[in-house]
Amino acid sequence: MLKLLVTGGAGFIGSNFVRFVLERSQDCHVINLDKLTYAGNLENLAGLENDPRHEFIQGDICNESVMRESLQKGVDAVINFAAESHVDRSILHSSEFVQTNIVGTLNLLELCRKNRIRRFIQISTDEVYGSLGSSGAFTEQSTIAPNSPYAASKASADLLVRSYCHTHGFPGIITRCSNNYGPYQFPEKLIPLLISNALSGIPLPIYGDGLNVRDWIHVRDHCAAIETVLHHGKNGEVYNVGARQELPNLEVARRILRALNKDESLITYVEDRPGHDRRYAIDSSKMETQLNWRARISFDAGLQETIQWYRSNTAWIEHVRSGAYMTYYDRMYGRRSQTLSER
Ligand code: NAD
Ligand code: TYD
Question: Catalytic residue numbers?
Answer without folding.
Answer: 126-127, 150
